Amino acid sequence: MFTRSVQTTAASNPTQGIQGGPIAIKGVNDDSQRLKVYGEQLVCIAGDNSGSMSGAKAGEATAAIAACMRTLTDPVNKDGFRVSFVSYGSSARLESSAVEPGSLGAHLDGSGGGTALAPALRAIGREIDGYAYRPGRVRQAPVVIVFSDGCLADTAAAIAEAAALKAKGAMLITIGFGSDVDAGALQSIASAPDHYAFADVGQLQTLFARVGKTLSQSMVKTGLMP
Prior knowledge:
The protein is α/β, with parallel strands linked by helices. The protein has a single domain (40-220), classed as von Willebrand factor, type A domain (Rossmann fold), CATH 3.40.50. Helix 1 runs parallel beside helix 5 and helix 2 (118-130) packs parallel to helix 3. Strands 1, 2, 3, 4, 5, 6 and 7 form a seven-stranded mixed sheet that branches. It has five helices and seven strands, in the order E-H-E-E-H-E-E-H-E-H-E-H. Helix content is 30%, strand content 20%. The protein is globular, with a radius of gyration of 18 Å.
């Protein structure tokens, strides 16, 4: 279970958007109206679809991602999230690119073979590089959520790819799922010690919902929300 809260608040780029302040309108008091600015954040999920995820684990992971997406679609977030989903096994596959959370429809079935994470992280790097923020939005640092239920086949390469994402300003949250997880590798990939969490079978949906809630709380604090 989550023993420490996942901290996902990242500093906004001060050159993007308008950081509040009264609007000067002739004949109207300066403090009578304030400009509302809304954040925007790309959330990329790398989902383990290796053979060990088949059956109940895949079903639970699919439901967990859906739970996170329901939280991100809350109207309080002002349509601030876009989500990309990459499934990975022996290879990586970009399933959805920068879609609205309610349109994600991620599905895992454990048909991916092995557990090679590095290709998925490279695909996410391309998503971050190619993402176009909407005009007038306050840019939030991209967030990468990685979950795995076993030992990685390419730990050193995955750690190197994670470092490249961090250099792009991304925040990495890692989730270990089940008793066979390589916690040390996922902790090395995470941006900070408290950005790693463990979920046993039956707990993943609750954990993903908490991650979504934390992201939402950070989004609501962005700019001058109503």
